């Protein structure tokens, strides 16, 4: 069973609609409503709403006993202004689907079409539309939700588009595929003063100037190295936007990455030691907090083999190129509850990178992604 040309036309229009109305993490009410509306035409046996916030899950039951397969996508967009003149560009100022979650949702809705036409012979399929992936909070919230226990999967699968890979080519390996990461927020507090008398204050300027290159110098290696670390300065601010005040406070955001969770604490310890020693040397106080915490994402060997067999059956080319990714992915938490694996679907060798203001999900990937996941469901559940 395959998608018809009419299906693909309708699904493309739906993807464009989702793209036009992006919502950031935790605020995906409208996106969830559009997903629920689309699902009503595809007759799931159950639809769960409000999972971990605005999450939605559609359940397709087979007649016989068998495993539960979960196919997961993401609801949220990014707080980035889209650039370009696409006819379906974002209508929401400062917000855009610049990671492809609109396309991932459409792939799963395409799978819903196929399942509605032929239910699995046994077991069940759960289609999960997860909230708040971009902040690393959504998967944990879904897993904590008591309703999730009613759909607890044996296997979990997901895909992410990957610019840089040829269109339709798949990156797939067992083991780590996405790095652990967390945002480190640093607040440096001294004492403000009149700009004509800076000596009467304690400015964080020197400490801030030292920390930005010093923290980034904690980076080493490449993602294929077990001890890979990366520290990226993502934001800074200092003082009031005024000419008459020497600053007394500064803020610095740094994103820390390691290949696996086990290496993260050591990187945090090195960063914290550097920050506290620098603050003390400049007679200012410091506060540190962590946000957007992602665990590393690792592909279970058995689940990876299932994906590989489906790709081979469909003659979809695949290899290990581009993996592990430096980017983080909230899907890793599902691997704590199920045999989980994610594949990376090529968006084109020269396609705009993820999170770039001119990125747009390639519509040609919709039927490819749906066909891969449908093959997995048929292989495992008949």
TrEMBL record:
Enzyme Commission numbers on file: 3.-.-.-
PANTHER family linked: CLAN MH, FAMILY M20, PEPTIDASE T-LIKE METALLOPEPTIDASE (PTHR11014:SF169), PEPTIDASE M20 FAMILY MEMBER (PTHR11014)
Domain Peptidase M20 dimerisation, residue spans: 182-281
Any one GO molecular function term: metal ion binding
Keyword Manganese recorded: yes
Gene source species: Roseovarius mucosus
Protein name, per record: Putative hydrolase YxeP
Keyword rRNA-binding: no
Keyword vocabulary terms for this entry: Hydrolase, Manganese, Metal-binding
């Amino acid at each position: 069973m395959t998608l018809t040309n009419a299906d693909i036309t309708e699904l493309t229009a739906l993807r464009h609609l989702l793209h036009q109305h992006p919502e950031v993490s935790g605020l995906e009410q409208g996106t969830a409503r559009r997903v629920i509306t689309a699902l009503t035409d595809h007759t799931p046996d159950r639809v769960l709403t409000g999972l971990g916030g605005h999450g939605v899950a559609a359940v397709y039951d087979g007649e016989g006993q068998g495993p539960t397969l979960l196919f997961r996508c993401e609801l949220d967009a990014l707080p980035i202004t889209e650039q370009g003149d696409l006819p379906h560009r974002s209508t929401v100022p400062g917000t855009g689907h610049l990671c492809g979650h609109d396309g991932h949702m459409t792939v799963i809705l395409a799978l819903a079409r196929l399942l509605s036409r032929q239910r699995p012979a046994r077991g069940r399929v759960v289609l999960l539309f997860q909230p708040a992936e971009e902040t690393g909070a959504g998967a944990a919230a879904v897993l904590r939700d008591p309703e999730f226990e009613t759909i607890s999967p044996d296997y979990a699968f997901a895909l992410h588009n990957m610019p840089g890979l040829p269109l339709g080519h798949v990156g797939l390996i067992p083991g780590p595929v996405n790095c652990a990461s967390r945002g480190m927020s640093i607040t440096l507090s001294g004492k403000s003063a009149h700009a004509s008398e800076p000596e009467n204050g304690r400015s964080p300027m020197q400490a801030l100037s030292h920390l930005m290159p010093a923290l980034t110098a904690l980076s080493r290696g490449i993602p294929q190295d077990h001890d890979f670390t990366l520290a990226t300065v993502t934001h800074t601010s200092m003082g009031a936007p005024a000419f008459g005040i020497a600053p007394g406070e500064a803020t610095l955001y740094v994103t820390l990455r390691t290949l696996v969770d086990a290496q993260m604490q050591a990187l945090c310890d090195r960063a914290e030691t550097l920050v506290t020693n620098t603050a003390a040397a400049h007679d200012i106080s410091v506060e540190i907090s962590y946000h957007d915490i992602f665990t590393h994402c690792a592909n279970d060997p058995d689940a990876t083999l299932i994906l590989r067999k489906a790709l081979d059956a469909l003659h979809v080319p695949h290899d290990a190129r581009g993996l592990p990714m430096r980017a983080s992915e909230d899907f890793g938490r599902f691997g704590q509850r199920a045999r989980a694996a994610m594949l990376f679907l090529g968006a084109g060798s020269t396609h705009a990178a993820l999170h770039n203001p001119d990125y747009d999900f390639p519509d040609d990937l919709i039927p490819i992604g749906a066909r891969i996941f449908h093959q997995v469901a048929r292989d495992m559940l008949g």
